[in-house]
Amino acid sequence: MSFLLVFLLAVIGFTGLALSLDRHYRQVWQSLPSKQQRWRWRLCGWFCLLLSLVVSLNRSNWDHGLVFWFALLTLAALSVVLILSYRPTLLRGSVK
Amino acid sequence: MKATFRHSMSWLHTWVGLLLGWLLYFVFITGTAGYLDTEIDRWMMPEAPIADFSVAPEKTLELSIRYLEQHAPDAQRWFSSLPINRNDPYPRVFWSGAQGEGVAARGSQLLDPTTGAALETRDTSGGQTLYRMHWRLHYLPAEMAFWLVGVATMFMLIALITGVIIHRKIFADFFSFRPKKGPRSWLDAHNITSVLSLPFQLMITYSGLIFMMFTYMPLVVAAWYGTGAESRQQFFDEVFSPLPAQQASTETASMVALEQIVHQAQLHWQGAALRSIDIQHPYNANSRIIVRGNHASGPLRAAGTLVFDGVSGELLTEQPARISGSKTFRDLMLGLHEGLFAGPVLRALYVFFGLLGSAMIATGLMLWSVKRRERAEKSRQQPHFGLRLVEKLNVATVLGLPVAIAAYFWANRLLPLELSNRAGWEVHSLFLVWLLLLIHASLRSTRQVWLEQSWLAAAAFGCLPLLNALTTDRHLLTSLAAGDWVFAGFDLSMLGLGVLFACLAGYLQSKAVPSTSTASTRPAARPSKAWPEAK
Hints:
The complex is a heterodimer of chains A (96) and B (535).
Chain A: H1 2-19, H2 22-29, H3 35-57, H4 62-86, H5 90-95
Helix pairs in contact in A: 1-3, 1-4, 3-4
Chain B: H1 5-34, H2 37-44, H3 57-71, E1 77-81, E2 92-96, E3 107-110, H4 126-136, H5 142-166, H6 183-196, H7 198-211, H8 213-216, H9 218-225, H10 229-240, H11 258-268, E4 274-280, E5 288-293, E6 305-309, E7 315-319, H12 325-338, H13 344-378, H14 385-398, H15 400-414, H16 422-443, H17 446-462, H18 464-471, H19 476-481, H20 485-512, H21 516-521
């Protein structure tokens, strides 16, 4: 089940990175982020992505884990794209 | 020459992409099917039983040798591969140099895992042929196909790199998909599918080239070993075989008990699975037995090899999975490309990324024609012949190829079982149907072709489970009840594809008859659009 955790962490990570961009922040909150908020989201994004890497490597066959990480990263980024395109306000409730 | 670096890269990306896009789409679609090769095999051989991985290797070996003794006496080589995972669901034997009346000199046969008799199935090309198409291109001579695919792959790599260079806002647009905005949406879709799956696309393209590096770059070997066939063989022997091949002696001898070999190998590898046993010169004084481990245990596609004396059973030499850095790198690339190690979840992801790659190519092709169609309509010019040709080829490839693959599955169930060269006709059906769809595309308007071929695809895939239920005794419910997940999975996937294509068709249909609300938002001056156009 660890791949589910990796996937969720990657989704949160990419959501953070997306929200550090003006365009997507506006999609979700109809306003622009402050400089501080932008950095906070960016930091949170990178931290979660790093954490997802650590979780996926932390198993006996780390080579499988690394392949999985790359695969789930793409899947997570795609999910974030789809949410932002079709249901951006969904992120408002779940993230904050 | 174009003015700036980015301009010239953009030119290269556009035209190389267009020229090789259709071939690359074929390679990607058939290659993606290859990730499910044995599953497709299984569906196309409905007579075969559920794979059983619990049979002890000693038992399978005993059955294999019994088969070989009967059907391939006095052979130079007996080979038996053991069913240890989905890559080889059934015991398989291979032999060469057999002698005797009514005996094939060389051959290959799948065996029934419990009885050891030849697996009686219909004559089919199966998932293997579909998978091999992605580099063999089926009808072409091997050498020519390798070079064509090689050139296409090389340009694919160039397209990936130039694509990154010409992408103006790769970070700012990383998450951007703006639907219903005409060419903008197609560009977004093209960017999203490529950028987000870039690790996979780079890996698959680069490793694809590594596969045939000895064909594409023969001079590296030639420089050290010489150019003749013999010197090439010497290179391959040195790199890939643990011991030089042994000549047969004139003396016959008894063979060591194979259980003993299996036992020794298992002890040596601490219980890891054995994949195959290769017996050179069986029942000869110079006999050797080569045991290979499981090369699909991880992304590194390599396994240890043990060589035993075939008479005494003494361990002669061992070749570990990693013998040099460069070979290990190659094994890693091949392993990642083939994904033999992938379990169900990762395998599903492999298939998904293959489809994303296909979507990347398809959206690129669409983008080319959509942009030019819009330009032509703005300047109120007749669309150029080239544009119309590309539009036709796009639809006949993007939708035509999937329909043709569905036809391949239909042919498997509908062709009479006693037809000679039945397996060959399955493949002919694929290409004949594809040709028909190309003709269909040339006769009708592009918008109609998109609509009609997506309905056709929906019907062709969606009805496959029904066809299966009518022509075999393994319909979906019996497979589900029997826990036969490979068979049920295939039926369900086909249903899923049918539904997807039906959704596409429904969407196109709704656009073909614009409702009043969409008509009002649309400039009246642009009435007749070929389908892939936004409102």
